[in-house]
Write a structure and sequence with these properties.
alpha+beta; seven-stranded antiparallel beta sheet; 12 strands
Length: 293
Amino acid sequence: MRFHAVILLRNDRLVVEEYFAPWQRDSRQNMYSCAKSVLSTLYGIAQAEGKLPPPDSSALALLPAGGGGEARDPRAGRITLEQLLTMTSGVAFLRAVDMAVAKDQVAFALARPLAAEPGSRFLYTSAGAHLLSAVLQERVGQSARDYAGQKLFAPLGIRDWSWETDGKGVTIGGAHLSLTAMDLARIGYLYLKKGDWFGTRVLPASWVEAATRTHSRPSGMNRAEDSGYGYLWWVDEAWSGFSAHGAGGQYVFVVPHLDLVAVFTADLPAKDFPVPWDLFRRHVLPAAGVPAR
């Protein structure tokens, strides 16, 4: 097992901060799909600034004309922003690594038929997050990377980070955001505090509530750790919490009623990706007073 860091925050105190050599507090790494939950946060900020249309708006209609938003499947015109946020768009399953072969990843994502009718069922894909990133860039007038630096990372004191873009300058919406474990904990703590960062309103509380409640269910994915999905956040109703997950064992768990944030970072083989979640369920939650299950 190759763990990098474990961080626990409880009742506004740093309870555990442990790093495993050669990893240290200032070591940053690719957080993989945790980037999706950060992208969700940017959507909440942009919504508060009045830069986004209603969630039921057509996503493709918001992409720039001639910017790669021409879909092969005519049903794609019915995809809404909310469907992309809840993984119910029907866009085919693609990982960030699958799309990395293309310079224009928006065009690449739309160049294949949909795998399901928009709105019909949960279908996890990094392609949908990349489309959301392209929409955000068009609406706020700067890349998600630059917008995050100004509106999210700077207020939270996150100074050492990077976020890759595709060949067209669109921030990779579903992965390739590098942070330290402590900075990932800062994102979790912002959500624990309902968008307030020590007296500064960074994110609307209404977005925190909406993003972390169940909008769709990942049935058929054999994901024992999650019962629902919000706006690019996983939801576990059994312990009234939510989390962001990334390949390799990157996790940030938030349990508001326990005033708890837990972060695990690692470099685990695919078969062991759920190990941090299992440790959280079997050890952290019981220590906080939740019966093991």
